Amino acid sequence: MAHPNGVLTFTTSISGVQVPQATATATTPTDLQGGGGGGTTGGGQNSNYDQHRSYFEMKTAELKCKEQELAVEARRLEILNIKQANQNMREAAEAKRLEILNIKQANQNMREAAEAKRLEMLNIKLANQNMRQEHILRMREQRLKIRILEEQEENLQGQPST
User: Fold this and answer.
1) What is the rounded distance in angstroms from the CA atom of residue 84 to the CA atom of residue 70?
2) What pLDDT digit, counting tens, does each position of 73-122 carry?
3) Which domain holds residue 59?
4) Lower CB density within 10 Å: C or N end of the chain?
């Protein structure tokens, strides 16, 4: 950017903030092209040398500015890549966390199903045990009835018939 006093200032914008990069002093454009003075004296050659020197200093400053801009852009891209990698790792961690939660839930469901089966088996065992006890009680009751009937029959046979 040209400045009124002949000083060129180069700036780079990083996230909307202007950062000065390099400055160079230059004379008028006609002086940079070598069309300013036409004398053959030593002073004229010195002035021409200074003009060329200023021109090359300005070009060097422009190149340094471009180099810094490229370095800033490379750093910005590197930061973006790091941010993206970080985001990818966060998403992968969240996916693993959800996977672990799903596995824990599946384990809990299997434990509950196993407990339900265990209770079902316990109920079946208790039902079988109750049926056995009922069967034993019915058998005892039948044996007792048979004994009573046998005793009654013996009593009837032992009495004289009238």
Assistant:
1) 21
2) 999 999 999 999 999 999 999 999 999 999 999 999 999 999 999 999 99
3) 7-77
4) C
